[in-house]
Structure formats: C-alpha cells, structure tokens
Amino acid sequence: xxxxxxxxxxxxxxxxxxxxxxxxxxxxxxxxxxxxxxxxxxxxxxxxxxxxxxxxxxxxxxxxxxxxxxxxxxxxxxxxxxxxxxxxxxxxxxxxxxxxxxxxxxxxxxxxxxxxxxxxxxxxxxxxxxxxxxxxxxxxxxxxxxxxxxxxxxxxxxxxxxxxxxxxxxxxxxxxxxxxxxxxxxxxxxxxxxxxxxxxxxxxxxxxxxxxxxxxxxxxxxxxxxxxxxxxxxxxxxxxxxxxxxxxxx
Length: 250
Prior knowledge:
Elements: H1 3-12, H2 19-24, H3 26-60, H4 65-77, H5 80-91, H6 95-119, H7 123-131, H8 136-167, H9 178-188, H10 191-219
Helix pairs in contact: 3-4, 3-6, 3-8, 3-9, 4-6, 5-6, 6-8, 8-10, 9-10
C-alpha cells in the first residue's frame, strides 16, 4: 500500500489521528482558529474595560462592593446555555451574543483580582506619594496600578484561559470557533476532527497563558529581583596575650 493510500485509509477508517485530515482541512482549521482567537481577545478586552471601573467604584464606595461582587458572582453561576438563551432576544444569532456572554462571565474574575491587587498596595507607598504631592488620579496610575499589576495579570491570565474554553460553547449559535468543529465532529462521529480541534483549544490556552506570563514578567521586573543577602558583621578578634609580659612591677 502506498503512502497516499495509507493516509486516505485513515479517513476511511475514521482514526483519531489522521494526517490526511490536517492536509485536506487546513483552511477550515485555520478559519476556526482565527475566529476563536478573535472572539477570545475581544471578550477579554471588553471584560477588562468593564471590570476596571466597577472595581474602582467598589473600592471608592465600600457600600457598592457587596452588590458589585454579588452580581458578578451570580452572573458566573448562570449556565452557558441559559445565558445565551437570555441574551438571544437582544443580540440574535450573532457573534455579539457570544462575546457579551463571555464578557459577563469574565467580570467576576477580573473585578476580584483588580480589587485584591489595589488592596495589597502598601499604605507606606500611598503615604509617600501623597507626601510628594500626588493627587488621586496620579496616585492610581503611577503608584497603585504598577504595584497591583501582579494580581491584575494573574486575574487576566485566568480570565483568558477560561474564555478560550467557554468560547467553544458558542457553537450553539454557530459562533464558537474551534467549538464548531468539535460540535460537528461529535454529531458525525468524525474522530480526527474532534481530537484535532480539542488539541488546538488546549494549545491556544497554553500559548495565551505563556504570552501573558511573559508580559507580566516584562511589566513587573522588580518581582524577579532576589533579596539581598544579609552580610554578617565581622567577628571582633580579641588580641592575644603578650608572651613574657611582667605580671607586675617591683
């Protein structure tokens, strides 16, 4: 049997791993991956733009902290099928439906991490900045946000990976990126398509997490500094007794 016939036989045999599927469906895989990435990036960016003022509001006015955190947590507990069904009359069968649902799901992670990062800023840093004449706006952008970046970036990483996974649910309305291929493969028992699309989803999540981790390390170089080693003081050397010294004078 020739190599080409063997490759085609894997499609006929419906194998899980099939190189011929990758060759013949490369454009389909590329289009689905691009749609998946586009939906994820737009959803996370919009979620961050919404979560940031909500976190600032909850921090500035503590009486709003409970309702804001409670509402975002409640939204996260709604099953995806129910969420999309509730949004369907407003957005119809469109990408906006999927993006809006993903934005609502990301809020609970982003709002909590932004608030946690800002709360972790040392009071000494704030007092020093105010002593130098920093106003509230300058204090936020030049002092508090840089110090809160580790927690903020950690939340962004979790939200991004979670959004990549949830984007596949958009296959319910035909806007799920790689989820479309997974759904079609499951319905037609096309094993190679299900496995390939699933592996690509995992790779997307891993690559996105690594890229955000690299960005975090670039933006927070002070977190990589090793603590200075404590230098022990030199031991005091006691002078040796002089040999042959007279014990006394007569």
